Amino acid sequence: PTRVLTGITTSGTPHLGNYAGAIRPAVAASHVPGVESFYFLADYHALIKVQDPARVQRSTLEIAATWLACGLEPDKVWFYRQSDIPEIPELTWLLTCVAGKGILNRAHAYKAAVDKNRAEGEDDDAAINAGLFMYPVLMAADILLFNAHKVPVGRDQVQHIEMARDFGQRFNHLYGEHFTLPEAVIEAQVATLPGLDGRKMSKSYDNTIPLFAPRPTLKKLIASIVTDSRAPGEAKDADSSNVFALYQAFATPAETAAMRAAFERGIGWGDAKQALFERIDAELAPQRERYEALMAKPAEIEAILRDGAQRLRVAHATPLLARLREAVGLRDLS
Ligand code: ATP
């Protein structure tokens, strides 16, 4: 089977962008015959940005409940928390020792942080933790440990998959063919959803619409989406509208075409937002109910996660690490 891997960082409450961009397509893909799916809660990755333990814990629970509420079947897929698999940080170190530092210097996330420092007149590396610099190696370990073939990603992540290939290839070259080299699957048809302020919706920007916000909150947040000041009756540009971009992610092509026509006819922002609210609420209401029920039983979620990690370690992670330790000249732990 083809192995497909998807992770979500446990850095906050999951939002509409995570759902439309990752969760909804990943759950749909898991029902395709011949696909073996790996879903994980990226809590080691979260520590790069979030140093608030309560937030990481809460986010872990919320994201786990979200996957389950959206139809992930824990008996049919691999579902686990990254930090429950000690072989991941162990592999990270083995890969660190073959990874070119120059390659990491060129990683987008690190370069963006350096550019921001320069723009603010700071030293290049001011306030940048080494975790941010190393994150492509941790991500390579996430992927290579399970020999994942396909990693669905947005365009900005393609570089990181190429790095994982590069580190895997170097390791194979030095120590024998241990790793399958992964391929990025670019989700061209999956749009990046804008947040309330028009920037990319992101847990780090505080501009999100939480996926399972209670109905009145959902309505209030949608009402606060930034729009231009065109009045009802004035034609509106669908392609530059955040309201339209969100609508499109939740509507059928026919509904989207009808909304585009309504924009041209000059639908008022209040009416457009009401239609958006109704569309999103209709899609999410059943999952929201399951989510709330799951959140009331954290011990059950915890048991599912532990069981998933335990089975995955036995089936894949522990035997692979034993082979890798031997390959590089470390002692056999078994
Ligand atoms: P952070 O701010 O902590 O990086 P994030 O909310 O931007 O978090 P991640 O947890 O890094 O998101 O990403 C999880 C998945 O959700 C990825 O597959 C990513 O492509 C997808 N995703 C995140 N934000 C959006 C968005 N605004 N639109 C579409 N997909 C998104």
Question: What does the model show?
Answer:
The chain has two domains: 223 residues, Rossmann fold, CATH 3.40.50.620; 82 residues, Tyrosyl-Transfer RNA Synthetase (Orthogonal Bundle). 56% of the residues lie in helices and 8% in strands. It contains 13 helices and five strands. It has a three-stranded parallel sheet with strand order 1-2-3. α1 links the parallel β1 and β2. The structure holds adenosine-5'-triphosphate. The site of adenosine-5'-triphosphate (ATP) has 17 residues, from β1 and α1. Adenosine-5'-triphosphate binds next to β1 and α1.
Name the descriptors.
334 residues, Rossmann fold, Tyrosyl-Transfer RNA Synthetase, 3-stranded parallel sheet, 5 strands, globular, binds adenosine-5'-triphosphate
Question: Could you write a compact summary of the structure shown?
Answer:
The protein folds into two domains: 2-193 and 298-328, 3-Layer(aba) Sandwich (Rossmann fold); 212-293, Tyrosyl-Transfer RNA Synthetase (Orthogonal Bundle), CATH 1.10.240.
